[in-house]
Amino acid sequence: MIRLKITAAYNGAAFMGSQQQATTPQTVIGTLMIALKRLQIDASPVASGRTDRGVHATHQIFHLDVPDFWDNTTRLKEMLNLQLPTALRINRIEIADPQFHARFSAKQRTYRYVIREGIPNPFEADFVTFVPKLNREAIVDAIGAFEGIHDFDYFKKSGSDVKHHTRIIHRAYAYSYQGHFIIVFKANSFLRSQIRLMVGFLLRISEGKSTKEQLIEQLGRVKRHSTDTAPHNGLYLTRISY
Question: What angle (nearest 5°) sits at the alpha carbon of residue 6, between those of residues 159 and 113?
Fold first, then answer.
């Protein structure tokens, strides 16, 4: 057997999340497994991390164990893409070290959240979060509070099955680009819905409903001021660093 490292991109609007589910095959891994079985590969891909329903990825990583005769990774990529819907593309397949693990070997994960000010249009609605008005300066001023080591107990979805809630945010920043406003978080890992809760708080600050000081209080678990969760459609997994 050989271990493969697969780099893929997908349109999250077409899937009910990334993880395999017993109730539906319409997930990223479920769809990938169907394509693999058509090639007589009976294996379960392991992802670098979970993305929720409607969340996109430009750079998701999987590992997969296959028989040695699949060592022609270029051919395997071509054959897999022929079997996959256009909402899911394999960009690269490499032979990896047998000890490589898509999730546990990852050192840093980067997500981007895309916002646009104005009225939603049907061509971007699945890929951009539209807001009526955006206070960019307020978000840029507040977002740095997330950087560092924090217990994100107040920035997680209930039911998160983890041993602790401490995460390291290496960078948190925002910038404007071609009419869009991009929020970026780089961390060792994230809790369930953590990014959408963080963006949700930043949008409250933009709207004047919350303050930077209240954000700092919630980060310090002094008081929970918001449980607003930003919509899924603006969120992208953009890089996994090993």
Answer: 50
Beta strands in the chain (DSSP E): 2-10, 46-47, 56-66, 88-96, 108-117, 129-131, 148-151, 166-177, 180-187, 235-241
Based on the residue annotation, tell me whether 65 is a catalytic residue of this protein. Answer: no
Catalytic residue, candidates 52, 97, 126, 161: 52
Query: What SS3 class is residue 44?
Result: coil
Cα pseudo-dihedral 7, 12, 14, 19, rounded to 10: 70
Strands 2-10 and 88-96: antiparallel
For the segment 75-94, the average pLDDT, to the nearest whole number, is: 97
Tokens found for residue 27: 């997930």
Which pTM does this prediction carry? 0.94
For 10-40, write each residue's pLDDT tens digit: 999 999 988 888 788 899 999 999 999 999 9
Structure tokens at 215: 């954000």
The structural domains of the chain, ordered by start, are 2-96 (3.30.70.580), 108-241 (3.30.70.660)
Contacting residues for 195 by C-beta, under 8 A, at least 6 apart: 111, 113, 185, 230, 235
Distance between alpha carbon 228 and the CA centroid of its chain, in Å? 18
What letter does residue 125 receive in the DSSP assignment? T
Q: Of 6, 188, 185, nearest to 105 (Cα)?
A: 188
Burial class from Cβ neighbours inside 10 Å (0-12, 13-18, 19+) for residue 86 reads exposed
Confidence label for 160 from pLDDT (cuts 50, 70 and 90)? low
